[in-house]
Amino acid sequence: MRIVIISAPAIRKAVPDYVTALAKGVESMGHRVDVLDAWTEDGFRLPGYEYIVVTAEPVSLFGGKLPEVIPKVLAAGSSLGGKKSAAFLKKTSPFTTKALSNLMRAMEKEGMLVNWSDIILSAAQAEFLGKRIGA
């Protein structure tokens, strides 16, 4: 299965270690994986994937706000209606669940079928979660 992992950290930086670990777990199950940096990619290639994973970090501690780049990348992808997807958020505060809800809402707004969501606590957990994607 062709799977894309969209990485949207709170600020522009290299792909976080938990995203790399998630990709490693997915690849270990025999899937083809591409990691897209939401800050540098435009999202036009998204319709070519069978499964879309969005990983992000909340921007604020209390409001559940997400990086502004997420809706832009998803909207640029177009034709995402009916795509199976997963939403993962890196835990940064006790209010991370609100941000996860906002992420899922943004994905569903584009017509994506979010069939799995979770909060990532560590790179080791991310790799474990990656082994369950597409199973």
Could you explain the architecture of this structure?
This protein has 135 residues and is of the alpha/beta class. The protein has a single domain (2-130), classed as Flavodoxin domain (Rossmann fold), CATH 3.40.50. Helix content is 31%, strand content 25%. The chain has helices spanning 17-27, 69-77, 96-109, 123-130, and strands at residues 2-8, 32-37, 51-56, 84-90, 113-120. Helix 2 links the parallel strand 3 (51-56) and strand 4 (84-90). The longest helix is centred in the C-terminal third of the chain and has 14 residues, at 96-109. It starts with a strand and ends in a 5-residue tail after the last helix.
List strands and helices in order, with pairings.
Blueprint: E1 2-8, H1 17-27, E2 32-37, E3 51-56, H2 69-77, E4 84-90, H3 96-109, E5 113-120, H4 123-130
Parallel strand pairs: 1-2, 1-3, 3-4, 4-5
Helix pairs in contact: 1-4
In CATH, the architecture is: 3-Layer(aba) Sandwich
Could you tell me the CATH topology label: Rossmann fold
- Please name the fourth-level CATH homologous superfamily: Flavodoxin domain
Q: What is the CATH level 1 assignment?
A: Alpha Beta
* Spatial strand order of the main sheet: 2-1-3-4-5
Number of strands: 5
Q: Beta-sheet strand percentage?
A: 25-35%
Q: Report low-confidence residues grouped into runs of 5 or more.
A: none
Number of domains: 1
Helical segment count: 4
